[in-house]
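Re: that chain you flagged

S.,

Sorry for the slow reply, it's been a week of failed gels. I finally had a moment to sit down with the sequence you sent. For the record, here it is as I used it:
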Amino acid sequence: MFARKAYSADERSAGYVNFLLGSTHITEGAIPFAAKKPLVVIPFLMIGSAIAAILTYLFQVQVPAPHGGFIVLPIVTHPLLWVFAILLGSIVAGALMAWNQNRSAQKQERKTSQSTNGCH
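Prediction finished late last night. Pasting the structure tokens below so you have them in one place:
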């Protein structure tokens, strides 16, 4: 969703699949992104997850099921607050990843333009 032009077509396609996977709390879709830049991406994911977890705690949300994502929404206390916490954490992580991806794309673009101009 963020910085679409900075990602390849394959990466954008993987991002769409992650919406479905993430809605059921299947996190394996993040592995290809994290594997490319683990020291950058994993902390961004941790920040987003921490925000969602802290908000869930503050909102006193209780999720009696150990897994299941939005499938277990009917048994969650304060379900709208839970969804809000997850969305906010996801947006923060996505924005951080987009910022980093834009920055990397701009660096690569400068390198490419310098090499085509004959500058080294």
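What I noticed first: The chain has a mean pLDDT of 86.

Talk soon,
D.
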